[in-house]
Every structure is written in C-alpha cells, then in structure tokens.
Specification:
With 139 residues, the protein is mainly beta. The protein is built from two helices and eight strands. Helices cover 12% and strands 50% of the residues. Strand 7 (122-126) and strand 8 form a beta hairpin.
Length: 139
C-alpha cells in the first residue's frame, strides 16, 4: 500500500524547468529543437552557459535564420504528457524592420533535471495557431 502511494505521489510531482538563456547565435541551420548533454555540443551551437550535466541536460530551441536584426523568441507555453512535450512558440519581428545583418538564429535554452529524461519522448514545437515549427524525439 505504501509503495502504491509513493508511486502515485511521484507521478504527480511538478518538474521545474529553468530558462537559462535567450539570445542569438550565428550557428547555421533552420528551426530546430536540440538536446545538449555536453559543453562541446552547446559550444557547437554558438551558445555559452553553465550547465551541470551530471544532474541536468539542456534543451535548445533554435529559430531562423534571419538577415535583419531584432528578432526574438516568444514562448507561450510548455505542456508535457507521458508521451510528448508540446511547446507553443513564435518569433516577433522588429517593429522598425531591423537592419541588414549576417544570418543568425534566435535561441532559448532550458535546463531540465536528468530525472525526467525519457528516451522516445516526442518534443513538438508549434506556433500559437498550431502550425508545426520543428520537432525531435529524445534519443
């Protein structure tokens, strides 16, 4: 009986996901959601951040590329079930149209505890109207 109660309480626990960084990167490519487990993988994306990989991992949402300054990501919501994570996100264009620049992508880096990592979970990013942006499956 105690074991059943413990399992029920574990299923109800809230997982704290921290937004660690937002910004721009010149790493080439398009929209992507990337799981990072090493500093080298994070540096490959052109992002520097302190992540304790022994107890957590990073998830990076990359959007773009853009050739005008001023784009930024807006994250409306993150919802998780036992089989998928759904992120509702979009980019806001600069009000003044921005200035010409070299291609870049915007990013948001989340830090997630290793205890919630489940191989095979689908991570889907969609716009507020439900249009797909990108997706991945946790390896």
């Amino acid at each position: 009986m105690l074991l059943a109660l413990l399992l029920a309480l574990t299923g109800c626990r809230e997982v704290r996901v921290q937004t660690l960084a937002r910004g721009d990167t010149t790493a080439p490519g398009g929209n992507a959601i990337v799981v990072v487990r090493t500093d080298a993988a994070l540096r490959h994306l052109g992002i520097r951040a302190a992540v304790n990989y022994r107890s957590e991992f990073g998830v990076v949402l990359l959007m773009g590329p853009h050739d005008r300054t001023g784009y930024r990501q807006i994250i409306e919501s993150i919802r998780a079930t036992a089989s998928q994570v759904r992120v509702v996100a979009f980019e806001r264009a600069p009000a003044n149209g921005g200035e010409p620049t070299a291609d870049y992508r915007t990013y948001t880096l989340w830090i997630v505890p290793n205890t919630v990592y489940r191989r095979g979970i689908a991570v889907n990013v969609v716009t507020p109207d439900g249009s797909p942006v990108t997706h991945t499956t946790l390896p």
